[in-house]
Structure formats: structure tokens, C-alpha cells
Model the fold of this input.
Amino acid sequence: MIDLRSDTVTRPTDAMRAAMASAEVGDDVFGDDPTVNLLQDTVAERLGKEAALFVSSGTQSNLCALLAHCGRGDEYIVGDMAHAYRWEGGGAAVLGGIQPQPIPMHADGLIDPDIVDASVKPDDHHFARTRLLCLENTKDGHVQSVDRMREATLVGRKHNLSIHLDGARMWNGVVALGISAEEFTSEFDTVSMCLSKGLGAPVGSVLSGPAELIHEAHKWRKMTGGAMRQAGVLAAAGLHALDHHVERLADDHANAARLAEGLGNIDGITVVDQATNMVFIEVDGDEPTLQDQLLERGVQTMITTGPRRSLARLVCHLDVSKDEVETTIRTFSELVAG
Ligand SMILES: *Cc1c(COP(=O)(O)O)cnc(C)c1O
Done:
């Protein structure tokens, strides 16, 4: 099966499973798990931050960050299509009394610095207190350069906002830009990154930032049920991923570019977008059975069918080889063309 639904569908490799099996562990609630501690120290060091915290998911990571930065009645400025606003169940509002101030987000993840500037509330009893600016990079595969991120973060700094990066797929950005993780995240106080997406670990994200904020986030992780015990088994997968699966993201980016090229040559398919490991396509016509037909031929996708066209996001990852990209292109062309 060639599964293109997401880069979260990867299975741990044999080498990763071996690393997990031989991990030294302890009770992480006591701070005793050496592998968790090593993962946290490794991420903090690579991102040039003081401290880091291993958490269960990207959602928990963003939530703990928001709860650590903001109090009840505070607000955060965030893109209206950002994961930390739109796709996380409103957790900051539900659990923290934190109000989001969504602002328009361009398809490539950029938010306009002027709109950030205009969205910061004055110090006045009518308003929530604007505390935090939250950016996302990469967004739908798109990478923003450090300079572009800085345009927004500088406005945040001008207003004394704290700044958080939802960098669930930051390693794709780091590899695409060919810069260090430290440079990529240098403008941010806190950074959330996923180990369970393109990096191929089965579970986990890491939140990094100033020691004081990570200390606070640790309390919120406990409160949200995220304290884990012999979590070194999972952290070992994360460490393995950081050491072996970062540079190879370039292969996923090349595979996605080839997939876009190949699908773009098929009559009836339009490539709407391609960046890093993601390809977005439109298929002409009403194709309610296309997803099932692809599945029967071993290509797993998630296709949203509409009256005149169908849409799909196809994601390349560790478990999709160069040959499988060619198979995918052939399969689409058999089913769609003509
Ligand atoms: C996937 C994702 C998250 C959430 O991660 P989960 O581990 O699925 O909770 C957060 N932000 C972005 C940008 C993501 O893509």
C-alpha cells in the first residue's frame, strides 16, 4: 500500500524499533528517565533554547505553550488557518480562558505584519490583553524564510509580545532552506515540533524555550494528563528520528516535486500547489469513486469530491519510495486520463 494521506502514517523502521527496545528508561514523572532527558536536552541544544519538554502530541505542545505564555483574559494573535487556532478544538479558550485573535493567513502561511500591528489591543479596560503572537512554519508544505518570519516577529517584539512557533513540520523547512534549526527558530521564544510527522517517530512532540516557560509548561502538561512514566521508549524513537531522518526529508521534497510533475502531465488533473513534501491536486469532474479505485490498486488517498472537481492533498514521507511515486503517477493516469 502506498499511503499518501499524511506524513503521520509512517511505521517505525527496524532501526528505530531497535533503538526503542534498547532504550534506558526510568520514571519521567520523577525526572528519572535518561532517554527522555537526553531527547529534551538534544532538542534544546539544536534549537539554541534553554530547555525542552517531551509531550504526547503537537496539540498538547501548542496548548502547553499557550497556557504557559497567557493567562485568563489574555489573547494570542494567530493566523485564521493556523493549526493552533483552527484544528486544536479551541483548547486554549476551553482550558485557559485565552482568547484567540485570528487574522488573515495567506496560503503559504504568511501573516501580514501590518495586520499584526493593527491587531494588538491598546492597554484599556475594554480589551483582552494581547500577550502572544503565534506563527506556523511550514504551512501546507510552504516554507517562510527567516527574513519573512522576522517581519512579523519584529512587530510582535515592538509590542512586547511573546512569540511562539508552531513548527510541527519545522524540519522540512530547515532542510528546504538549508539552514540550521537554531537559525530557523531564532526569532521565537518557544517552538513546538513534531517527531511523529515527517520524522517518522510513532508518538511525540517537543516544546522548547526559556527554562522558566518550560517549567510552567511542565505543570500544564501534568494537568492535561500528559505526564508519562517510562517514556524513554518513545523518546528513543524521537532521538533516532532526529539523528537519522532529518536530512532525508530532502528525498521527500524531491519525490513530491516529481509527483507534482507527473500528475501535472495527466489530462484532467491540475496541480494546484506543491511545496516541500506536499502536493495539492484538483481532479476534473465528479469522481466519487476515484478514492476507492485508487485504494483497490494500492494507492491510499483522501479525496474530497465536489460537483465539478475533486481535491486531494498528497504527502510524501519515509514510507513512500521513488518507485512508489512512479507507481502512483501511473495509477492516477490509468484511472483519470480519458
Ligand atoms: C499536526 C500539526 C499539529 C498537531 O499535531 P498532533 O500531533 O496531530 O496533535 C500542530 N500544528 C501543525 C502545523 C500541524 O501540522
User: Anything to note?
Assistant: The mean pLDDT is 97. The chain is about 40% helix and 20% strand. Residues 10-244 form a domain with the Aspartate Aminotransferase; domain 2 fold (CATH 3.40.640.10).
